[in-house]
Amino acid sequence: MSKKNVILILSAVVMLVTAFIIKDTTSDAKSVKLAAVPMVDGERVPFVNAKGFELPTKLYFAGEKVPLEDPDVYERLDKELNVNVYFHSSTIFLIKKSNRWLDQMKGYLKEEGLPEDLAYIPLIESGFEHVVSPAGAAGYWQLMRTTGREFGLEVNDEVDERYHVEKSTQAAIKYLKKSYEKFGNWTNVVASYNIGMAGFGRRLKDQKVDSYYDLLLNEETKRYVFRAIAIKEILDDQQKYGFYLPESSLYYPEKLDSITVEKSIPNLVDFAIENGITYKTLKRYNPWLRKKTLTIKKAGQKYTILVPKSS
């Protein structure tokens, strides 16, 4: 046999062995890949890093039934639920902050005889952050200056109690009670909180209906109540919707002391240092202080300033 023929035969053998190995390896890879593909209703489906969630068959918000039998209501709530489930960064921080504030808000509402679910209003309004809207609404409850003053808050250049958690909540409670007197159910009250009592009442009258669920509304108000319901559903059953936050990662209520102030403070920076904290820390716990001074304007007036317990 010539040298050339030997080389040809060896080449053919190598090619056959290589082809067999590749086929076997490919077969194994396919088996592994196939095993990783999930089964749905007895059939394998391509892997997708998402999961659809069905709504509960019955839902109540503020003690009132959500009419899920209405296809429009069902689909709007379905959208808000899935949007918020997959808006991971936002929803994670809503869960964290809710652990600090939600029970406190519910407590204030319960004391006044209001449904605890109304505590989801400041959660969807501000995410429990002291933000300011383009229209000028401020604080957790996103109150306008005129609304804050109307319901008993001090709002000026030096003191703005829309940023005071307890006082702004009490003002919001007064607003919600007044709204309930006007509309007679809490779902309408929540919707009117977004669009205003006058605007909501006008739309009910113009469209000759008496329920939020029957109104054609602007996009923001159209989604508003449904977002509150969706966030409540997610927070009530976090693991069902894929949120596994360790307790150590949640935000908890902080231990604070109070200082009663009955005389003007010419410099809050100095006041903070005298009390063993920084001005930054003072502002963290008292965001309603808007300037570096605090003036007592009339006899008997006083303020309560919060500081960390360790100070």
Automatic annotation (TrEMBL):
<dbReference type="Pfam" id="PF01464">
    <property type="entry name" value="SLT"/>
</dbReference>
<feature type="domain" description="Transglycosylase SLT">
    <location>
        <begin position="110"/>
        <end position="208"/>
    </location>
</feature>
<protein>
    <recommendedName>
        <fullName>Transglycosylase SLT domain-containing protein</fullName>
    </recommendedName>
</protein>
<dbReference type="InterPro" id="IPR023346">
    <property type="entry name" value="Lysozyme-like_dom_sf"/>
</dbReference>
<dbReference type="InterPro" id="IPR008258">
    <property type="entry name" value="Transglycosylase_SLT_dom_1"/>
</dbReference>
